[in-house]
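Model: Ready when you are.
Researcher: Fold this.
Model:
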Amino acid sequence: MSSATQTTRTERHKVTGDVHLLLRRGDEVLFGLRENTGYEDGAWHLPAGHLEADESVVDALVREADEEIGVCIAREDVRFAHLMHNSSSGGRMALFFLVDRWEGGPENREPEKCGALGWFPIDNLPNRMIDYCRAALEHIAADRQFSVYGW
């Protein structure tokens, strides 16, 4: 095939998947205070983590909830809230899920990365938050299930 007829191939985008938990107690949502992570330390953030290989997003959320805050969530109690295509680190898919029922905790199971846990009213969020998380919560409040951030 001559160079004139060859097509240039574009590298496929590789994306990291993140799951975020909106653990709700009435009109309040649970946040953790980031410490010693090297990224946005001092900011409040939802319990969250990366999707691992061979793991569904619901399984990842259930696992992260247990690992980070010691709560046991039944898969049928996980409700999808929002998908954000975030430009950070070359592109991430951040999935946000609502949970109103759980067993155990919450307790801080990662004190080396989390300085405190705190409940905040959804209409009075903490002043210092990671920007994309605040944007996602605004979309969720407006019942928008998809957004693009930072592109």
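Researcher: Now this one.
Model:
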Amino acid sequence: MGSSSGQSGGSYDLSFKILLIGDSGVGKSCLLLSFISSSVEDLAPTIGVDFKIKLLTVGGKRLKLTIWDTAGQERFRTLTNSYYRGAQGIILVYDVTRRETFTNLCDVWAKEVELYSTNKDCVKMLVGNKVDRESERVVSREEGMALAKELGCLFVECSAKTRENVEQCFEELALKIMEVPSLLEEGSNLKRNILKQKTENQAPPRGGCCS
């Protein structure tokens, strides 16, 4: 292997698939961008599905996180099955300044996770975003913690804008995934499976998904 492929080559120990879900506009894409890079511009809504890869070292292991970002809008819900397949971590995001985004986590998103998640041991994390807008807050930290407990999730409040707690959010999730034997095993088996999968599900060309 040439030195040029150092980054993308086999330079990681474990590979995990992480999903970001929640209503449109809660800041999923900003959260992801804030984690991946140091600048967060105002982003246009995600159309369909987008994913980014982040290499980081957590707990002495080099991890490759493939983080999938989804559009919150209903019309893209057809992607759901394949989107959830094989995810080791799911981040449920709400906006602390919009009560309905919090309620929907319970009414819509948590149910969807139950329905579609293929990993029963999958680690879930509840994230209250936009804490930089403290004066507009309508969902208290206590409520967030209570819901997280009820849904069996980790919990963190953060701000994609100021980047407060953003890295902790992903790192904590990764550490927790690494504590689950079945997920850890999947993460280390991924390299062997990738070639097999490539031939099975060739990604549809951009533009059409069911042509």
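Researcher: Key takeaway?
Model: The two ends are 38 Å apart (CA to CA).
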